[in-house]
Amino acid sequence: MSSLPIPNADAQALSQQLALLIQDKISQNGGWLSFADYMHMALYTPGLGYYSGGAKKFGMGGDFVTAPEISPLFAQAMANQVAEVLVQTQGDVLELGAGSGRLAVDLLLALQALNQVPSHYFILEVSTYLRQVQRETIQQHLPVALAECVVWLGSLPDNFVGVMLGNEVLDALPVHLLYKPAATEAPALCERGVAFNGEFYWQDQPLPAGNLLDLAATYDLPDDYLTEVSPAATGLIASLADALKHGAIIMVDYGFSAREYYHPQRNLGTLMCHYQHYAHVDPLVYVGLQDITAHVDFSSVASAGEHSGLAVMGFCSQAQFLMNCGILDIMSQISPHDMARYAPLAAAAQKLLSPAEMGDLFKVIALGRGLGLALLGFASGDKSHTL
């Protein structure tokens, strides 16, 4: 990975601390660690993991840019969908993994303009560091009355009513790597994990009987094929469903339906790392200093919701969802002749909507309980039938 920027000495020291912890875990586990466990430690080890350490993650000075960081347009359009559910439920908003807090700020301001401010805007955030970043963002950008409705939670509430929202949450959950060797090799199916011998390296082990093998068998994978499965993602959806009494879960992320996700040509999987705006495919370097993600299998998300008694309310591209939610109407409130204000909006809309940017790769799925009406965001171009 010689093309990547070199971390400074402090960052390298933190990375080394985390690497030693992972080496210990590999030793305790008989010399091999599932990639899901490795990814969990790399991202979430308190004080050292990527999401728990102190480096800037989001925006131009971080490692990647999320939709809410690009422009308030994203939250302003999303607010129309959130408000529609709040009118039906008279409930609250719960944001999962709120990043820098930018979405919370812009969404609350937009909901205020729509006269639909919830009593509570809950944030469920596992990272102590990011909680602090969110508090600073909210105190800096929201009037006191709006800031006071933001409440941080340590666990999911019981009998939640309203809207649960997650932007780029599912892609950061640990995944297991499955490898089906070429037909001439044995065994039939392996799990790819991490071993250590002076440095971290990949090592495959036969996949034993159990839930992972049963899950893999449902996909009928081709030979010489590497892919991911995410019991953590389906487990999270099941937990959210258990907590949701009345309302909707709306998740935005990059990914595919199962038919696309496990397509024979996608034989190297979707694992991706982000470090200072460089995207690459080696999660075994710069441990704790880079983001590690995998695309989302939205079919499994839908199935997990349905198994927990939720209805699939819609599934479409981010571009389709934002247009259904009125993003173009929001833009039209600024005159194109006012170039100082309009040009940045147009550039942001291009990033959010263009198929070459985030528009098609990012998808939006909504799962609901007790909602009588179809959702605005899926009024046109709903692709639920592809799940």
From TrEMBL:
GO terms for molecular function: protein-arginine omega-N symmetric methyltransferase activity. InterPro entries: NDUFAF7, NDUFAF7_sf, SAM-dependent_MTases_sf. SUPFAM superfamilies: S-adenosyl-L-methionine-dependent methyltransferases (SSF53335). Transmembrane segments: none annotated. The keyword Ribosomal protein does not apply. The keyword Methyltransferase applies. One of its GO terms (biological process) is methylation. Keywords: Methyltransferase, Transferase. This is SAM-dependent methyltransferase. It comes from Methylotenera mobilis (strain JLW8 / ATCC BAA-1282 / DSM 17540).
